[in-house]
Model the fold of this input.
Amino acid sequence: MAKRNNGGDSELNLDSLMDAVTNVVGVLMIVFVMMSLNTARMLQKILSDLPPVTKEQHEQIVKKVEQLPPPIATPEKLEEQKKQAQQELKKAVEQLQTVDTSEMQARMKFMDLDSFRKKLEEAKKEKEKQKAETEKLLAEVERLKALLDETPIFKPDPPTYVRLPNPRPFPKNPNEVRILVAKQGVLFLNEKEFIKPVIDGLEKIRSQFEYKEVKIDPFAKMLEGILGSPQAAAAAWPELAPLVNTYQLDQAALAYKALADAKVPATRQVLSAIGSISLVTRAAMPDVAAAIIDATKGDFAKWIALDPTRDPANPRIKAAAAGGKATLSWGAKTVEVKFTPKDILDYFVKDLAGMDAFKNAAKDKVIYDAFKLAATLERAAISPMMSTSSYTFKPEVKPGTVYVQLLLTPKPGGGETREQIRAETSAYQRTLRQLKLDPNGVAVFQVMSDAFDTYLEARKIADQIGVAATWEFLAKLELTSNVTNYEVQRFARAPTGRGSNPNAVRIAGPKRALD
Done:
């Protein structure tokens, strides 16, 4: 029996193999028979075509024939080989028929040609899809190459002047020159010199800005918010109006409300005393009023807490009560009064407020009429003395602030361009050289958001000259300046909590410094 071949899926069908072997053997038999017949014919032809030979030639030929090797096989032997080959072929066919092909047939059942075709089709589709995507990518690469060819070569900007900061303390009494830096150039302002002629003119008529006849109208909204109603504001106005030249009326109104709520007389005399005490103790009027109200009830804690020395070991304020008496001290002066609300209130209104320190504090304090001051400044703004200035200004009374503000606007064509400031004869460089001679001179660069390159150039010149300088950002090309010599009514309530706790820890803002 033939050996079973376990070659896997690549083996051929055994029936086909049997047919092929039979065909091969048959072909070989036919070849052998044809060769024998051809050999016989060729021999007969050769013999018939041979020319007559002599005896000598015959003998030579015989010798040559004898020298030839014996033939491979005789016809009889060939016939015998043919029969033997047929028997072997028959035997091989019988053996092939006995071969077990069940395993091969079982394997062939698992070969699903349809699924292979389906997978082949899917693979072809995926190949086409990837080919399309590849073509898109190649097209994008070509497009980017074209764009890159059209892109101009990058040329970096020229080098920028950079300086290392050199922090130094700011002068105590600086003479500041504000230098406004815009994209086109610089504009400088010495605020003290600009305001000085204006202030000099105001000083000559200072008394004209004091309140003569005060009306409730500018204060009505503020007082209604504090006291609760227009009626309450109107009722309080006779007691508050006399204080308008000395105290901020929002503070006076809060003190008035505290006294009225506690059923303590809220007269102008009591309010004036509270105002004087607030100036000396550096406390807000509502806080002084609250301390006095508690003191009339026998509680001196708030009053002692207002001690301006803030030194418990050596206090200026002392207060105690015993045996129906109250002993109250301010510094070296001690007063003993009956321990009644009226007598304690009289101590604050008459004894304490009557001392020279309190009377002089109130005497030296003046609050001016903001609207009179603003009207005078409007006339000064259009006066000939301001025609040579690089700025125009407009006064503004802004509720919530205690000074009239001047809104400064640069005049068209004022200042110098970046090209002009490079010249040694420029007004910019002359101003810086003059400022350097002042030990307290400081150049304050105020830089707009789009003008940093201009600032670097201007600052380079300032560093070369050696002037002390610092810088800060400027939101817009406008400046504000307060007329600080003249405090005015704020016409609005001060922020809540301002001055309400004298012992509170306060964190100071960052100190200015040169860089």
About this structure: Residues 39 and 118 are 59 Å apart (CA to CA). Confidence is low (pLDDT under 50) at residues 6-12, 498-503.
